[in-house]
Amino acid sequence: MTEEIIRRVKGHYQNLRILDWRGYVAMTLFGYLFAGGIFAISDRTTLPLLLTTSLYLAFAFSINNCFDLKEDMRSRKTKNPIAVGVIGFREAIITSMGCALSGMALSYISFGGIPSVIFLLLLLLAFAYSAPPLRFKSLPPIDTISHGLFFGALLFLYGFAVVEKPPSSILLLAVSIFLYSILIELKNHMNDYESDLAAGTITTACWLGIDRTRKLFRILLCLHFIVLFYALYVFSSCYLLPILTSVILAVAIASICGEKSRATDVASVLAYIGVLIPYIL
User: Where are the transmembrane segments (predicted)?
Assistant: First the structure.
């Protein structure tokens, strides 16, 4: 009995994919610190922000596993505890909806107004991405566009809106994060290209073909950095030169070490830090 409970608890932990939250929590905190500065960390809104973001991410990853069940069983993916029978579909759905409803209630009680509206949009998009009848993740290119919103731009805007109403000037950063999130999704599509084809999963990469997907990735990558470095110039022009130098060095070192795929992530993080520095010092 005790072993069965422990096994199920471990299964639910695996289903929430907590280790995959890091980048998305960072997007929310980026918006929060950009609006409120470093002292926002000690504000009473920090804890409910982190809790609601965590509940949202728990919902998004869990509900995705629930409705990826057939594909994951066909491709024999062991990362999905529902597909391998560690936890049941029904209890995973109940857990997912519990996280969503708890997060929505906490967001409304703690923040209300614009943050709660954004949080509701996050929940609806994450649900529509994974669950039928819409299941955006099987409708290219809506899959990548929706991912750019609910795992990108809207997280940034949610963190910002907790402090103040988002002005139009920060849309530049929101667009950059939107593009960066699409790049993350396309990278995953390219990595899973063969297994997705074998399982009959329709993604943007399967729809376009691997060569055209790689070309699209390069175009969006260039556009992402154009928007991001323009944002760096607008919001933090005094740090533009040292950040550019750091980015070039990081890309060069990564290329020498054979880690070209990580170079774009390092370059993006350094640029976002450069944007943030004047607002936290």
Answer: 21-41, 47-67, 88-108, 114-132, 144-163, 169-186, 216-233, 239-256
- Chain centroid offset of residue 65 CA: 16
Give the whole-angstrom CA distance, residue 192 versus residue 206. 10
Cβ proximity of 280 and 38 under 8 Å: yes
**Residue 24 forms part of a structural domain:** yes
Task: Name the nearest CA neighbour of 183 among 211, 214, 137.
Answer: 214
Does some domain include residue 4? yes
> pTM score, two decimals?
0.93
Distance CA 56, CA 232 (A): 29
Tokens of 260: 């070209």
| Beta-carbon count within 10 A of 109 CB | 11
**Nearest residue to 71 (alpha-carbon basis) of 128, 3, 135:** 135
70 SS3 class: helix
User: What is the pLDDT at residue 8?
Assistant: 83
DSSP codes, 148-162: HIIIIIHHHHHHHHH
Residue 217 located in a structural domain: no
Tell whether 34 is covered by a domain.
yes
223-269 pLDDT, tens digit per residue, is 999 999 999 999 988 888 888 888 888 778 877 777 666 788 888 99
pLDDT tens-digit map of 85-121: 889 999 999 999 999 999 999 999 999 999 999 999 9
